[in-house]
Queue: 2 jobs
Job 1
Amino acid sequence: MNYLLENDHKNINTILSQVQSVAVEYIEKQRDLPPGKFVKDISLSDLPQLGISANGALDFFVKHYANHINNSAGPRYFGFVTGGSTPASIAGDWLVSAFDQNACGSNDSIAPQLERQTLHFLKQLIGLDESYFGSFVTGATMSNFVSLAIARQWVGEQQGIDVSNEGLQALPYLKVVSSTAHSSIIKSLSMLGMGRNALVKINIQPDREAIDLKELEEYLKQNQASTLIVVANAGTVNTVDFDDLEGIGQLKQKYNFWLHVDAAFGGFAATSPKFDHLMKGINHADSITIDAHKWLNVPYDAAMQLTKHKSLQPKVFQNSAAYLGDPTESPDFFHYTPENSRRFRALPSWFTLMAYGKQGYQEIVERNCSCASFLGSMLESSDEFKLLSPVRMNVVCFTLNKENPSSASIAAFLARIRDDGRTFFTPTNYKGTPAIRAAFSNWQTTEADVAITFQALKDNY
Ligand SMILES: *Cc1c(COP(=O)(O)O)cnc(C)c1O
């Protein structure tokens, strides 16, 4: 054995203790470190001929790179929809690497069973029927991808076509109907060969981002001969608006379509009696996307896909080989997901759900939403800013209170905010207006952070 490797193995305790010091030092400073960074491109260095050992690599990393890592896991990073990592989820994540399971087999490790256990917790947290089958994937994009892949298989079967064997060319017609579909739905349509243009956009209600149910029904009525996929949105990224899931679900009694619900972060509305009405009807869904690295606050990358049509999934994803076993007999995850070998991705989620329970998540969701509404009310009564939509849950969508703010002026303002170092946002466009989003989904954020944030906004106006 290479002596560096042998030596590192002997010193594993010291190595991991030093890593722990680096991690703890960062986490203890998280509240004060600037959330966003602009990092210049670095020049690439050559692969060492002779290694420098794990401690050498750690020293080098700390000296040259650690200060340039951004603090997106901290409490005042409001870009995109970014969660952090709860203490318990970090503990779980460290063990994922130490145990290094290939979580695809069924009985040669407890890992796949713990994945099913974690999904059971999740179904109870979100109020989903126990009949949903689920698995962990890398993010909501992959969850949407898996969901649309099985929806496509279902559409084929309605017409006597086995898409998994015959390919898309066997299908005469495939449309995906939605109003404010997330960009990852459109990306998935491209990856699945269904094409970005397969998306049919139904109008939204005035002053909303939610689908106009009458227009949806009209479209379904006009297209009864074909079998459609409807993608409902349970939490749009700009204003956290929800399609009427119960209303759409009722339409399934009259029209034959697959209902996929993208509830990547909005699904967590179900954890609180203040917001759970928004998720009413979710159990009509044939498939559901829930992200874990957003509001569940586990480290990247993790999300869950769920479906009521488990049997369709191995038709698409089965991986038949003599050494992998019979996919019809084996419940192994690699017959159900795009991956073959898979990380034990469920463990950080299991840790955090065990550690904080239903009440823990209700508290995070309610605190994030009350922080968002606090920021919203301060912006609304300010002279410098203008709210573009009511704050429905955890996202504040606003702009500069100027005549026609340009996207360049928003970009320049957000660069000043980033360099100021107190807070961080990402830009958007809301109904044609260049805008700013503040998304609250980090477990550490408090009202004190909102006060600091508002001051930073005013100071940089
Ligand atoms: C974030 C998000 C996605 C994509 O999620 P990733 O985890 O980044 O792949 C999809 N849909 C919605 C509604 C989202 O908020």
Job 2
Amino acid sequence: MYSHQLQTSILISQCLILGSLLVANGDYLIGVGSYDMTGPAAGVNMMGYANMEQVTGGIHFRLRARAFIVAESKQGPRIAFVNLDAGMASQLVTIKVLERLKSRYGDLYNEDNVAISGTHTHAAPGGYLQYVTYSVTSLGFVPQSFDALLTAIELSIAQAHDNLKPGSIFINSGDLENAGINRSPSAYLFNPPEERAKYARNVDTQMTLLKFVDKNSGKSIGAFSWFATHGTSMSRDNKLISGDNKGAAARFFEDWFMSSNNNISTSRYTRLKPLSGALLRKASRITATGGESCPKADIQSSKVRQNNESRFIGTFCQSNVGDVSPNVLGAFCLDSGKPCDFNHSSCHGNDQLCVGRGPGYPDEILSTKIIGERQFQKAVDLFTSAEDEITGKIDYRLTYLNFTDIDVLLDGNQVVKTCPAALGPGFAAGTTDGPGVFGFQQGDTEINEFWKTVRDAIQEPSQHQVECQKPKTVLLDTGEMFWPYAWAPAILPIQILRLGKLVILSVPGEFTTMAGRRLREAVKETLITYGNGEFNNNTHVVIAGLTNTYSQYVATFEEYKQQRYEAASTLYGPHTLSAYIQEFKKLAQALARGDKNVARGPSPPDLSSVQLSLLADPSGDSPPPGVKFGDTKNDVKNGPFKARDRVNATFWSANPRYDLLTEGTFSVVEILQGTKWISAYDDDDFCLFFEWDGPFYNDDVSYGLATIEWEVPEDALAGVYRLRHFGSFKTTKDSPISYFTGASGGFTVIKG
Ligand SMILES: *[C@@H]1O[C@H](CO)[C@@H](O)[C@H](O)[C@H]1NC(C)=O
Ligand SMILES: *[C@@H]1O[C@H](CO)[C@@H](O)[C@H](O)[C@H]1NC(C)=O
Ligand SMILES: *[C@@H]1O[C@H](CO)[C@@H](O)[C@H](O)[C@H]1NC(C)=O
Ligand SMILES: *[C@@H]1O[C@H](CO)[C@@H](O)[C@H](O)[C@H]1NC(C)=O
Ligand SMILES: *[C@@H]1O[C@H](CO)[C@@H](O)[C@H](O)[C@H]1NC(C)=O
Ligand SMILES: *[C@@H]1O[C@H](CO)[C@@H](O)[C@H](O)[C@H]1NC(C)=O
């Protein structure tokens, strides 16, 4: 009896030891998390195109923060990586997230081992960056955008942390053609011919993917991939919040995983009853339900994809995206339809006429879908064939640099300097993805007397700056502008995260294709040289673009000579890239040698206390006399409808900024099952559009109109449907918040 017990306990302890050994030998603790970060869907300037008229007016699909954490063991080293459906990371967001993580977890997550990266969508709310240049068009700082981001990052990391479980990681990479073209090919040609000869294309086609697999269930819990293409499938005129092509790819990937693993596509709205002729006739008599108040919990429970810990997370991260456009058909003149001028991307001198075309041209939603699908399909290929397991150390290094005056030692022992930040005229010209101000062309190295006068009235550049930035002519001297607070960053973080054979370079900007290649190769060479066999040619080095903070573009020294948009936006002068390479090599050397003593450098400022916010919050909504919020203004027209038809209804509504309905939804398509309506599609679905228009005024009463539009998808089930709207309002700024809902009349969808 006793010996039997002893044997059992020995067995148990052996199992435990074996278990922990397995964790130590190759397995990691892995957690993933995801949280809604959509933000304000009305009246807030979008980040990216710097177009003041481009303010949010609804939602195409919701934005998310998606995170992974990998740890060697419970106490061991770990890294956390968060990918945001946002224009870019922000220094102030990073600072405040780190403060929140510190109060939750002490020193577990800190500036060294956390990376926060943006997908570079140009269709997300702005106003969350702390330097003036990035908040001019949003009328300053927008607390609501900022808070939505902060909360989503914090909670996605918290979810990943709470989910940490033993698991394994696989890496795979492959080429994806046709999801990006070079939008400054003439600048690329300035790079040395022998360097260009090493590469088949003038954009990087490589996608690198990590697949996370749970040890107990053997199921995958998530995948993160890196690939370079701009988030500019949606144009500068779009008003709907959208994750653009990378957000779309993530939506498709997560839905694909759910349906292929849980048979969701047919069970999504529970078992379906066959549609009888009687039901068909009845549907047309189901009238709209008037607006009524509803508990907020109803809104949350109406969401189709509940955020829970068993959710698979698929995410698409940005890389050396500087000169890569998703508008793969090329740029053409709006007037003549002919290709634009090669060197200047203009049409008889007019930059505004030269616009790039996506593969769905002229339908930008279709372009977003196609470029999203191409990335999604490639990720599925890499995911399903990933067999190369990651083993080895987790490690990281970070340093801050003052880019205003870095001494850069060039080959041949010449020492050159970086400069205070400045923008050239090519910046004002914009790009073929979104032309800028009339009168400027990409490639301009001169500005006229008029603009010189304007410039000098704002800030006349110092003589040092003028010389330092050449051949760029300074149009906006952002690095020497400090009123009402700093216009451009001086202090930037650079960071390396290591996960076995994967090395992630967190860069605070948009490296061009060739700039990225030079950086990756320099780091790889350094790692191999100093790594004592830890690194070799199979080490994957990826660039995580737009990470931790934002400082616009980084072009090569040669590309800088042409002063197209990317070069004119390379803030710290012609040697910006060389400075990055020099400093990243130091960091890589420290990592390779296991040297923990990296100089921290100067801390970036926290400018939260001096931010100006000129955009007003909504201060009270009421419906016009005779109607209630949630009533239909225009009901759906009579069906039946079939795949690809568009169905819409317009509701009397209030400003969606009273409650962002985070992890909830403004719009739902419901399907009738027996006597119950069941959610089938919501804000997260690519086929459903929530369009908000307003505010309108009736005397001193303000209100809005919400149109819900559904494009019936190919795989929609035949049945009886209705469109439903949720919203919230306050009657005055200080009154309590009320929630409301309303639904359209019933309509049928038939097959064929
Ligand atoms: C998925 O569900 C459908 C309908 O319930 C069923 O016919 C099919 O066999 C299921 N497929 C799998 C792979 O479980
Ligand atoms: C979690 O979400 C998935 C997909 O949305 C769903 O299939 C599953 O039932 C949910 N689990 C719980 C516990 O809510
Ligand atoms: C573009 O500029 C380069 C040099 O700057 C010049 O050699 C070339 O001829 C120009 N191409 C066109 C099509 O104008
Ligand atoms: C960066 O360096 C410049 C030049 O030395 C200095 O004037 C400036 O104060 C520094 N910036 C910050 C934010 O420390
Ligand atoms: C390193 O790998 C690349 C492709 O990943 C290959 O083209 C190159 O020849 C390899 N170099 C060596 C020295 O093995
Ligand atoms: C809604 O549908 C009607 C009828 O098909 C159409 O005339 C109208 O333009 C649509 N409205 C919107 C906002 O899409």
